[in-house]
Specification:
Layout (H helix, E strand, L loop, with lengths): L1 E6 L15 E2 L2 E2 H11 L4 E5 L15 H11 L5 E6 L7 H14 L3 E3 L2 E8 L2 H14 L4 H7 L3 E3 L15 H8 L5
Parallel strand pairs: 1-4, 1-5, 6-8
Antiparallel strand pairs: 2-3, 5-7, 6-7
Length: 183
């Protein structure tokens, strides 16, 4: 089973407000990310958000790896995750299907070269154990450390899909994309 995971639990400190609730093309970024994951073929979507009704981190304040670890523990070994940050409004089902197809064909975690997220991540005991140890001993870590440990495959991104990898972190980037201030 391929399960979507939206990472929407960050502090949004650079944006100075909750990015997940910003509206783009008539939908919140959170709604849009969930919809894209479902359209890409995910059976269901988990939302890492540290609020009631959402998937909460087991290790608080652990950044993206906290949400990824919680999702790994929530799903069965043998499932796989497509991990998508909430701040990628141009992500497309086609982009995510490309990741799933490559990851399943290689039976490996994979991501786009020079862009660690989104990623395809099989739910394995190795991934669980690595993140549990990292988060228990260091409190947080880098997504790249997980991918390196799992010998994930860095895929070249087809040029026609490259614009879908853009993320939005600041009010200036938001204004550039939407023509207005974040509200």
């Amino acid at each position: 089973m391929v399960v979507g995971l939206v990472l929407a639990g960050g502090r949004s400190s650079r944006m100075q407000q909750d990015k997940a609730l910003l509206t783009f093309d008539g939908k919140s970024l959170l709604e849009q990310a969930e919809e894209i994951l479902l359209q890409s073929g995910c059976t269901k979507v988990l939302i890492s958000r540290n609020q009631p009704g959402f998937l909460n981190d087991i290790y608080p304040d652990a950044g993206p790896l906290g949400g990824i670890y919680a999702a790994l523990m929530h799903q069965a070994i043998g499932d796989s995750l497509i991990v998508l940050p909430v701040d990628m409004p141009f992500a497309s089902p086609e982009l995510l299907q490309y990741l799933v197809n490559k990851g399943q064909a290689q039976a490996s975690a994979c991501y786009f070269k020079d862009c660690y997220l989104p990623m395809y991540l099989p739910v394995t005991q190795t991934a669980r154990d690595f993140l549990q140890h990292l988060l228990a001993t260091q409190g947080q870590g880098r997504v790249s450390a997980l991918l390196h440990h799992l010998h994930a495959i860095a895929l070249p991104c087809p040029p026609y899909l490259t614009p879908a990898l853009r993320n939005i972190n600041t009010p200036a980037q938001w204004a550039e994309v939407t023509g207005k201030s974040p509200q």
